[in-house]
Amino acid sequence: MSFGRGRGIYILSRPENGYSARMALVRILVDGYSLLHGWPELAPGAARHSARARDELVRVLTGYHDVTREPITIFFDGAGAPPDVPKAESSAAVEVLFSRAGQTADDLIERAAHLFQPHGEVLVVTDDHAERETVSGFGGSVSSCDNFIRMVEGALTELQDELRNYNRAERNRFRRPH
């Protein structure tokens, strides 16, 4: 099963049976540290568990939300984290949650995916194979971090191209003699 993006709607395809359908996502659930480990170009030089890397991930995924309008929740393991790690930092675009002692980000993601399931399609982004198997086992959709990174980069590049073309057209429109 794989995902491809098409203007805020995801195209789910299963090549083994020729199935292809368009669906809107209710929420994207992201294993934050898994995605950071798979995206070394994000906040280069910063430790993958650092505030700088987390902030950059939130910034980029906020931009992705601006393009797709799909709500995103990023989960981080918070147990054993330094005392300056916030309990939660969220915006209207991207919700950020840290697990507490006795739970993992994986636990929270699996629970959220299960709870959102009656409301529509949820996409879980992680490179943790056990977590992906668990989520897909109860009917949830999953994406590897690498695939999701390509989706995010593609959407942000598409937005930049559209803005560049729009700005060029506007400049040309105002340069024309009336």
Describe this structure in words.
With 178 residues, this protein is α/β, with parallel strands linked by helices. It has a single domain, classed as Rossmann fold (3-Layer(aba) Sandwich), CATH 3.40.50. It has helices at residues 32-37, 51-68, 105-116, 129-137, 145-175, and strands at 2-6, 9-14, 19-23, 25-31, 72-76, 94-98, 121-125, 141-143. The protein has a 5-stranded parallel beta sheet. α4 links the parallel β7 and β8 (141-143). The protein starts with a strand and ends with a helix. The relative contact order is 0.16.
Pattern of helices and strands? EEEEHHEEHEHEH
Strand tally, please? Answer: 8
What is the count of structural domains? 1
Largest sheet descriptor: 5 strands, parallel
CATH architecture: 3-Layer(aba) Sandwich
Give the spatial strand order of the biggest sheet: 6-5-4-7-8
Q: How far is the first residue's CA from the last residue's CA?
A: 54 Å
Helix tally equals 5
What CATH calls the topology is Rossmann fold
In one word, what is the shape?
globular
Tell me the Rg in angstroms.
Answer: 18 Å
Bin the strand percentage: 15-25%
The CATH class? Alpha Beta
Helix content: 40-55%
Alpha-beta content class: alpha/beta
Q: Give the low-pLDDT segments.
A: 1-22
Arithmetic mean of pLDDT:
82
